[in-house]
Amino acid sequence: MKMLLAALVATTALSGTAMAEGITGFNIGLLGGENAQDRMTSNECLRNYAEETLGVPVKLFAPADYDGVIQGLLGGTIDMAWLGASAYAKVYLTDPEAVDVALVKTNLDGSFTYHSIGFARKDKGVTSLADMKGKVFAFGDPNSTSGYLIPSVEIPEAIGATMENGDYFGEVKFVGGHEQTIVAVANGDVDAGVTWADGQGNWEDGYNSGALRKAVDAGLVDMNDVVEIWKSKPIPEGPVVLRRALPQDVKDKMIDLVKGMHAKDADCAYGIAAGETAGFTPITHDYYGSIIAVRQQQAN
């Protein structure tokens, strides 16, 4: 979704709800990770609640890549999104005034972190990064924190080589997103891949939350058929952000809605948060300083 979205036409307030002042519609961007239809389905309940809360039409947008959401926030055509930390860093480094950090997904133990997980099919005979020499390693999106940024820093340190094709791995391949990575590994199209998970709970469930959990729920992978070959250090969970130019009452209403979703509708919260979580908790920009620094360093 790199093209600008047309401004929504003003409509009458939805029945039984007071229209939020200063806006005629509200757009929610859905970062890549699974196919567009599944992203839309998982967040349809949020769209409905947001319409009810704001009293204006609410639309979901699921661009093909992370940059579609990033550019939508920067261009003012997307009002809210749950970003990865690296995607937020790109927004902030491009325009520090574009968005405000609001909330963060919270794990069942109260932490705000997750992990990049390297994994392979058991029948590939790959159990560690040492077994990946000369093989094909799949990554999701260049703007993904767990799908590329963190692995691109930590994996070279672990293997003593670069991520350049042929230096250690036979090929480093971008496949488009977390779901695509999981499917590519499960189908045997690549030797291994990286995706994200909270690292809590049971491996066979795809952990408690994350892309593996969503893939298990969707029947895309049987975790008994795959093995973990690498796990990153804890990564700061990405923030829910809102466009700074929005009226304050709109931002407050949406923050309250998402923050209260776990108590209001547990099934909706499960879909939004990609699994079992303790919901969303307030967070500030300062939490992302380390990721912003890594992203800035890579850009130089």
From TrEMBL:
Residues 1-20 form the signal peptide. One of its GO terms (cellular component) is ATP-binding cassette (ABC) transporter complex. SUPFAM superfamilies: Periplasmic binding protein-like II. One of its GO terms (biological process) is transmembrane transport. Keywords: Signal. The keyword Kinase does not apply. CDD domains: PBP2_PhnD_like. Belongs to the phosphate/phosphite/phosphonate binding protein family. PANTHER family: PHOSPHONATES-BINDING PERIPLASMIC PROTEIN. This is Phosphonate ABC transporter substrate-binding protein. It comes from Gemmobacter fulvus. The gene is phnD.
